[in-house]
Amino acid sequence: MQRQLGLNPNEVRERLRLLLIGEPEFACLAAHLTALDRLHADCIEALFVHLGRFEGSAALLADPGRVERLKGQQQAYFRQLLRGPYDMQYVRLRVLVGLTHERLGIDLKWYLSAFHFYLDFMHKAIGRHWHAEPKLAEQLYGCLLKAAFFDITLTADTYVAADKQALQASEDRYARAVRGANDGLWEWHVEEDRLHLSERWLAMLGLDAARAPRTLNDWAALIPESQRGRFLAAVQAHREGRQPFLHYECELRDSWGRLIWVMIRAVMATDLHGEHLLAGSLTDISQRKQTEEALAHQALHDALTGLPNRQQVGELLSQALQRQAKPGARHAAVLFIDLDRFKLINESLGHQTGDQVLIQVAKRIERCLRPGDHLGRFGGDEFVVLLDDMAKPLDAELVSKRIMHALQYPIIAGSRRLAVSVSIGVAPLTGRGNEQDALREADLALYRAKAFGKGQLALYNDSLQEEATQRLNLENALSEALARDQFELYYQPIVQVSAGRAQVVGVEALLRWWQGERLVSPDQFIPVLEESGEIVAVGEWVLRQACTQVRQWHQQGLAGLRCSVNLSSRQLQEPGFAERVALILKETCLPAASLVLEITESLLMRDGPETLATLRELESMGVRIALDDFGTGFSSLGYLHRYPLHIIKVDKSFITKAPNDERLKAISRAIIGLGRGLEMDVIAEGIETPEQMDFLHNEGCQFVQGYWFSRPQSALAIHPVLQRLSTIEQAEEGGQEAVPAPAIVQ
Questions:
Q1: Average pLDDT rounded to a whole number, residues 92-106
Q2: pLDDT value at position 676?
Q3: Is the pLDDT of residue 629 over 70?
Q4: Residue 50 scores a pLDDT above 90
Q5: Count of Cβ atoms closer than 10 Å to residue 608 Cβ
Q6: Which helix (H) or strand (E) holds 632?
Q7: Domain EAL spans what residues (predicted)?
Q8: Which of 80, 198, 615, 729 could cross-link with 185 by S-S, CB 3.0 to 4.6 Å?
């Protein structure tokens, strides 16, 4: 503080010289110190009585101990005031006292009033004490007055310097904050319509002082016309007190013609002359706006393809439905597109390849659309197309076929050429309902398309909604069927025909569902169980019931009878499936060799290493594995080598017409020969006629199954059939073996 006040020895001497303080004054005071000390003591007592009259100081002086300390400090000060010396140490002490008082919040006016009391008291006291020597009294008071003024100037300067220091610190903090915020500052003198703009304000727009806006309208001219009126309205609202602050975001055109986003903030104030000022800051928020726009885009668009996402598709559909509700609107439709067997690509080639496929599929679909149409990714491998402003409803079907045609050509993903296809559901937009209804209708059409196989197209009609409702009701009923004991197992014999004998060797357990008195077709409810996942619990029930029943038949004399149970892919994928099979065999006391688990080719195509490991674990337990419906799918001889298979079941589609169809006869013969060559049992399914039996007998197929022997029946009804089939022998006719007559045909 001393340096800030410039209080060096020369300055101190100059102040003493201006106050005419020198050796004569020091000598005059020194000659009368004893008397002056007594007068100072009286002054101190009077001063504290005087201070006690004021509310603020009275509380401070309520403590007697504090009062005595303060009186002692005041006495020491008065002694130093009389004796000096007025050197740098004295000055430093006075500055420190003044600074302390300022920081304690003691106003300068209070400090000056205390000095006024002191000088007034001492003037009267000196006059009374030296009343006989008025000239001496006048001389002594003059010396004391000079010393007091020396102190007063030091204290007053300290107060002023402290205020300046605080003000400068505040201004420095504000300047640092402004520099840190990188804001431009501005003031608008309302009555004069005059702008004052900081250098940073001008620099943000690439302007210099010569090109700076002079008035508020000059500034507003830099704002795009679409935003200008709202800016001026915001200023007016704040001026009229309807808004506590001015806060407005808009674009400004810089000197290069570019638009930058800024935030304008200000508050109305009054200057020293009573004029109104609107003062505030200008902040460049372009980066923030870019980030907001990017986040808004991300919120409404798919990260992989850049297409509108589910939320944006919903908004686009909502807008289209509003247009459709207006009279005279042209036709519109929504397409729900799903990639066929995309899960297989992901699982076999990895998600990175799958992503490349999705990107290329999206690009191909986009090229098939018209201007004004919209393509969005709904999620996973599903896309949605909004066709708007169509001349006729048929246009939706034409666009769908164009999309399917565009995807006929292979897609290049890395080093692979992949054949992809899509299924498409088409639903017209009628203006009724909301976007969820439109998507649901398109999804129902897609469901119908996929039911026809891959690469299919289906159009929505009201019957699809009825079917969906029925399917939902069916699913709900199925979810309770197991608990309500509505399932029952039917059994169909598997017969070995060899060496003149027809001997039952096993049964296939087939699930049936009773709804009241009505028997529901497996073709209706098995797919629903698969889709809902209920097949896992129901499948375990089937396995346990079948093993229990076959074990019971063993005990009733049908020793060696095998039980065939169909498996779904969901069951086989369940962790610990082999362990559960082992537990069921143990609980039912059925030998593992008496259990055959039937799987399909499609299951082997979808599943990977886990399936192979589970099948090998089952084989190691003694369970036999049968490949069902062989030849109906994309059969691969590699499956027969890779997987632990023991039985091939020839689908009835080959057997039914084989006796009269040379091609089917050749295929059936090849399958039978293949099984025999691989030392696998071959079971022919769907045997219904003597001609079919004769054909299989001639081809050496020993194991057969079909209505020729028995329809599937309940355990109670099939038991006598099994007993008969366990003893049938072939009859001799004309010295040749004849095919066995049907035991039961029901």
A1: 68
A2: 86
A3: yes
A4: no
A5: 11
A6: none
A7: 471-726
A8: 198
pTM: 0.54
* Domain 301-460, CATH number (from 1.10.150.20, 3.30.1360.200, 3.30.70.270, 3.90.550.10): 3.30.70.270
More confident residue, 122 or 59: 122
**Cβ(168)–Cβ(30) below 8 Å:** no
* pLDDT confidence of residue 699: 85
Q: Is residue 457 within 8 Å of 423, Cβ to Cβ? A: yes
- pLDDT of res. 47: 84
Q: For residue 722, what pLDDT band results from cuts at 50, 70 and 90?
A: very high
In the DSSP assignment, the letter for residue 689 is S
468 within 8 A of 444, measured Cβ to Cβ: yes
Helix H or strand E segment including 98: helix 88-103
Mapped to the 3 state alphabet, what secondary structure does 650-672 carry? ECHHHHHHHHHCHHHHHHHHHHH
For the four alpha carbons of 27, 33, 37 and 38, in that order, the dihedral sign comes to: negative
Q: What letter does residue 211 receive in the DSSP assignment?
A: G
**CA geometry: angle 680, 681, 684, nearest 5 deg:** 130
pLDDT of residue 584: 96
Average pLDDT across the chain, whole number: 86
598 closest CA partner among 553, 654, 551, 643? 643
β pairing state of 184-189 and 276-284: antiparallel
Domain 487-729 belongs in CATH node 3.50.50.60: no
Decide if 422 contacts 338 (C-beta within 8 A).
Answer: yes
Dihedral of CA 713/719/724/727: which sign? positive
Residue 704 has pLDDT above 80, yes or no: yes
Q: Which residue ranges make up each domain of the chain?
A: 2-176, 183-291, 301-460, 487-729
- Domain 301-460 and domain 487-729, same fold? Reply is no
pLDDT surpassing 50 at residue 263: yes
Residues 419 and 396: beta-carbon distance below 8 Å = no
Give yes or no for a contact between 687 and 709, defined as CB atoms under 8 angstroms apart: yes
End-to-end C-alpha distance for the chain, whole angstroms: 118
Structure tokens at 257: 């013609």
Residue 622 zone, left/alpha/beta (φ > 0; ψ -120 to 50; rest) = left
CB proximity list for 579: less than 8 A, separation 6 or greater: none
Q: What pLDDT score does 188 carry?
A: 94
User: Hey, what amino acid is at 319?
Assistant: Q
**Other Cβ atoms within 10 Å of 731 Cβ, number:** 11
Residue 178 confidence (pLDDT): 64
Dihedral angle, C-alpha 170, 174, 177, 179, nearest 10 °: -130
Strands 501-515 and 518-520: antiparallel
> Positive or negative CA dihedral for 252, 255, 259, 263?
negative
